[in-house]
C-alpha cells in the first residue's frame, strides 16, 4: 500500500539562522514567527532567571505559561553579556547568523558593543531588527513602554469599551503583539532585498507606530469629521445590526456589513417585510434607526437558544458567531480540523499542548513545532555546532561562568 502523505518540510526559511536577543513579549513573538517559518532561532538568555517571563506565574514544575506561549521552536543558550568573553561569543554568533532581533530600549545594544554598526562590520549581510515601544527617534524614544501604555498613546484604547464608560484595555496584548507582525514582515522584505544587494539592513520597529497604523478607518473617520471616534462597545459606529445579542442561554454575535446581509437577516427572522422598510432599507437608514433595528433582532434572539440561533443564521448565511471562552475556542471543530493545538515533548514538563503555528502552506506540511526550550538547553550544542568549539573550550567557559 502506497503512503500518499506528503513528506514534512521545515518551512521556507530553512537554512536561515536568527540570533534572538529578545525578552518578554513583542520581540519573542517576532522571533517565534521566524521559527514557525522554518528558521533556526538561537535565543540568548542571561544567567540565573533567563528571559524575565520565565519568572511570571503561574508555573508548572518551574516552567512559566507566559514563556511557553512565545518561544516555541527556539534554542536557548545562556551567555553572560556582562563579561567580555560573553560579548565575544555574542559577536561570533552574530557573524554566523542571517538575522538578529532585539527589543531593548534604543541605545542599549550599542552600549554593549552589539549595535548594528558594529555587527554589520563583522557580517555585512546581517538583517538587524530593533523593536521598541516608540522607535529609535522622537521625544519618547527612551521611555519604557508596556502594552497598556501603547494602547493608550496610540488612540486604540480610546475607542474600546462601552459608550459612556471608561475605556477598556484590549484583552489581547496587541500593543506588544504588533511587533510580532510588523517585525517579521520587515525582516522578510529585507531578506528579499538582500538577494539583490548582498547587504543586510537596520530595521526600526516602533510598537506605537504599529498600533497607530492599525487604527485604519477610525483614523480616516477622524480626518473626515474632525472629531474623535468614541467607544461603541460591541457595536459598530455605522453598521447596524452589528454586535452582541441576548439568547435564552447566553448571547450571540450578529454582523450586517452590507444590504445583501440585511436581506438574509430579515429572511432568517421571518420578517421579509423589513427588507424594504424605509427605516431599514439602506446602511444609513439602519444606522439612523439603530434602536429599532436592534429591538427587532433582540426580540427574536432572546426567545431562542444559542444553538438554535447558530442553526438559523448558518442556514441563511448570516455572519454570526457564538461567544466562546478560550478553552472552548481551542477545542472547537474548526480549530481541531486546522490542528491549532498540538502536543509537544517538553524537556521538563513531558507532553504538553501548545498553540500551533498559524501560517500554513498547501501541499507542504511542516512538522509539529519544537517545544519551547528550558533555560540553556542548547548551550553546548550551539557552541559546538555553530561556533565549532571543543568540549574543553566549552567547559572552560562554563568554569568561568561565561555560559551556563
Outline:
By secondary structure, this protein is of the alpha/beta class. The protein has helices at 26-36, 65-69, 84-95, 108-111, 116-122, 147-154, 174-177, 179-197, 207-213, 217-225, 259-268, 283-288, 290-301, 306-315, 326-331, 333-337, 379-385, 391-399, and strands at residues 17-21, 40-45, 59-60, 63-64, 74-78, 99-102, 127-132, 202-206, 242-247, 250-255, 320-322, 341-346, 350-355.
Describe the structure.
With 404 residues, the chain is an alpha/beta fold. The chain contains 18 helices and 13 strands. The mean pLDDT is 95. The protein folds into 2 domains: 17-214 and 344-399, Crotonobetainyl-coa:carnitine coa-transferase, domain 1 (Rossmann fold); 242-324, formyl-coa transferase, domain 3 (2-Layer Sandwich). The two termini are 50 Å apart. The longest helix is centred in the middle third of the chain and has 19 residues, at 179-197. The relative contact order is 0.13. It has helices at 26-36, 65-69, 84-95, 108-111, 116-122, 147-154, 174-177, 179-197, 207-213, 217-225, 259-268, 283-288, 290-301, 306-315, 326-331, 333-337, 379-385, 391-399, and strands at residues 17-21, 40-45, 59-60, 63-64, 74-78, 99-102, 127-132, 202-206, 242-247, 250-255, 320-322, 341-346, 350-355.
Amino acid at each position: 500500500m502506497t503512503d500518499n502523505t506528503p513528506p514534512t518540510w521545515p518551512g521556507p526559511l530553512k537554512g536561515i539562522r536568527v540570533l534572538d536577543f529578545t525578552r518578554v513579549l513583542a520581540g519573542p513573538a517576532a522571533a517565534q514567527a521566524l521559527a514557525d517559518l522554518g528558521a533556526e532561532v538561537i535565543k540568548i538568555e542571561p544567567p540565573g532567571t533567563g528571559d524575565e517571563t520565565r519568572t511570571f506565574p503561574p508555573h508548572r514544575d518551574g516552567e512559566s505559561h507566559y514563556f511557553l506561549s512565545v518561544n516555541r521552536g527556539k534554542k536557548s543558550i545562556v551567555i553572560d553579556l556582562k563579561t567580555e568573553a560573553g560579548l565575544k561569543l555574542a559577536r561570533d554568533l552574530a557573524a554566523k547568523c542571517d538575522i538578529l532581533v532585539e527589543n531593548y530600549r534604543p541605545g542599549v545594544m550599542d552600549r554593549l558593543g552589539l549595535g548594528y554598526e558594529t555587527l554589520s562590520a563583522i557580517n555585512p549581510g546581517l538583517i538587524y531588527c530593533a523593536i521598541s515601544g516608540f522607535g529609535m527617534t522622537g521625544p519618547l524614544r527612551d521611555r519604557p513602554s508596556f502594552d497598556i501604555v501603547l494602547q493608550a498613546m496610540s488612540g486604540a484604547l480610546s475607542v474600546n469599551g462601552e459608550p459612556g464608560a471608561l475605556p477598556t484595555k484590549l484583552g489581547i496584548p496587541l500593543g506588544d503583539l504588533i511587533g510580532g507582525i510588523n517585525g517579521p514582515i520587515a525582516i522578510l522584505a529585507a531578506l528579499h532585498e538582500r538577494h539583490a544587494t548582498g547587504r543586510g539592513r537596520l530595521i526600526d520597529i516602533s510598537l506605537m507606530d504599529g498600533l497607530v497604523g492599525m487604527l485604519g478607518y477610525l483614523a480616516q473617520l477622524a480626518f473626515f469629521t474632525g472629531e474623535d471616534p468614541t467607544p461603541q462597545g460591541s457595536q459598530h459606529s455605522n453598521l447596524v445590526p452589528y454586535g452582541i445579542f441576548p439568547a435564552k442561554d447566553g448571547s450571540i454575535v450578529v454582523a450586517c456589513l452590507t444590504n445583501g446581509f440585511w436581506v438574509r437577516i430579515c429572511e432568517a427572522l421571518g420578517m421579509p417585510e423589513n427588507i424594504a422598510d424605509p427605516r431599514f432599507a439602506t446602511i444609513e437608514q439602519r444606522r439612523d434607526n439603530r434602536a429599532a433595528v436592534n429591538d427587532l433582532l433582540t426580540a427574536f434572539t432572546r426567545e431562542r437558544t444559542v444553538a438554535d440561533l447558530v442553526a438559523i443564521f448558518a442556514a441563511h448565511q448570516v455572519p454570526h458567531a457564538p461567544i466562546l471562552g478560550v478553552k472552548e475556542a481551542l477545542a472547537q471543530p474548526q480549530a481541531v480540523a486546522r490542528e491549532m493545538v498540538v502536543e509537544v515533548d517538553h524537556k521538563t514538563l513531558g507532553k504538553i499542548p501548545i498553540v500551533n503555528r498559524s501560517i500554513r502552506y498547501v501541499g507542504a506540511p511542516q512538522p509539529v513545532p519544537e517545544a519551547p526550550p528550558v533555560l540553556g538547553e542548547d548551550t553546548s550544542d550551539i557552541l559546538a555546532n555553530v561556533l565549532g568549539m571543543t568540549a574543553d573550550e566549552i567547559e572552560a567557559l562554563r568554569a568561568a561562568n561565561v555560559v551556563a
